[in-house]
Design goal:
Blueprint: H1 3-31, E1 35-37, E2 46-48, H2 52-69, H3 74-97, H4 101-109, H5 113-121, E3 132-133, E4 137-138, H6 144-148, H7 151-162, H8 169-188, H9 191-211, H10 220-237, H11 241-247, H12 249-262, E5 276-278, E6 283-286, H13 296-301, E7 306-307, H14 308-333
Antiparallel strand pairs: 1-2, 3-4, 5-6, 6-7
Helix pairs in contact: 1-2, 1-9, 2-3, 2-9, 2-10, 3-5, 3-10, 4-7, 7-10, 7-12, 8-9, 8-10, 8-14, 9-10, 10-11, 11-14
């Protein structure tokens, strides 16, 4: 089987798994009362939560198919799956029992450990400390890289989690980011990174069908944290660090605005003022109260009120631009001055 056919097969297996699992998962979550309130709609409907479990199952099946086809990739995929599963466990606990924000962040920092362990055991398979920059080429960072590595999973995991607030924003944006990573992997000849990206892309496309406006399911922290961790893991294991950072720019901006306005890490229930106000017609307006956190939504709504669907389209447009820039970055990584 040629490489492109393998990528398509992995993507399809991941997609089919998530797509078929979601209806039963939604029904089960509702029967158990695991629901969230869709606060950006006037009637505040209850929506099944923790649907991210379906994304994780799709990723796992896609990874298993990858390993059946090419067992030599085992160290990479073990690191990839272990990182995602550890992060999923943290999200699962947070969804059910609500961890303190600082505790959750500290725990996600530890999820980089599987990558380091596998990198030390299989240094030829997972090369750490040698990121590639456009025009400059491969760097040898003996100290700085290892100081930043603990945040390589925690930052995207929490940034994606913080932007999972509107129907289809997280899933739609991360579809574009995972596609950007997939295309970038092919440009740079990183076949195993392409396979990992395909596992994430297939699951997210299927999940988006159920999470798009008007959402039938929310991912919960188990989903959004895991998706962000998967993006971070692909970026590190595949040597696509700069591509991942570029594609995640809207998420990083949103996290920066929110944290700087709040003065630190807070759980959603600890935030007294929401960033947007929903009127009786379902129109969203920026909350100008000084106690309200600043987010991308605030900035986008400062130019005028909008419906949730209009706001979602603006978010997706920003992610489309950053994802394209990620692909351009991959092209430039092959350019030397």
């Amino acid at each position: 089987m040629n490489r492109m056919a393998t990528i398509i097969l992995v993507l399809a297996s991941s997609f089919i798994t998530t797509f078929l699992v979601m209806p039963k998962l939604i029904k089960y979550l509702k029967s158990k009362g695991i629901v969230g309130i869709d606060v950006h709609k006037p009637d505040k409907p209850e929506i099944a939560e923790m649907g991210g479990i379906g994304i994780i199952l799709g990723i796992i099946v896609g990874a298993i198919v990858s390993l059946i086809i090419d067992p030599k990739a085992a160290p990479k995929f073990i690191a990839y799956l272990a990182t995602i599963i550890l992060t999923a466990i943290i999200g699962f606990i947070d969804d059910l029992y609500t961890l303190k924000a600082k505790v959750k962040t500290a725990l996600t920092i530890l999820t980089f450990i599987p990558i380091v362990v596998m990198g030390l055991i299989f240094p030829r398979q997972i090369r750490l400390g040698r990121p590639v920059l456009p025009f400059i080429g491969r760097l040898r960072l003996t100290i700085a890289y290892w100081l930043l590595l603990p945040f390589a999973i925690a930052v995207p995991a929490n940034a994606v989690n913080m932007m999972d607030t509107y129907n289809g924003v997280m899933s739609g944006s991360c579809v574009m980011i995972s596609l950007s990573l997939l295309i970038s992997s092919l440009i740079l000849g990183r076949f195993y990174a392409a396979l990992m990206s395909a596992t994430l892309l297939g699951a997210l496309i299927a999940y988006y069908w159920y999470n798009r406006y008007p959402a039938r399911v929310f991912s919960g922290d188990v989903g959004s944290l895991s998706v962000g961790a998967a993006i971070g893991a692909i970026s590190v294991i595949g040597g696509l660090e700069i591509v991942g950072v570029t594609a995640l720019i809207p998420f990083i901006m949103n996290a920066f605005y929110s944290l700087s306005s709040l003065g630190g890490l807070l759980e959603r229930h600890e935030i007294k003022e929401r960033p947007v106000i929903v009127d009786e017609n379902g129109v969203l307006r920026a909350n100008l109260n000084s106690k309200a956190p600043s987010t991308l939504a605030n900035l986008l709504l400062l130019k005028g009120p909008a419906t949730e669907l209009e706001l979602v389209k603006s978010y997706l447009a920003l992610s489309a631009v950053s994802s394209i820039l990620g692909i351009v970055t991959a092209f430039l990584m092959g350019v030397r001055l």
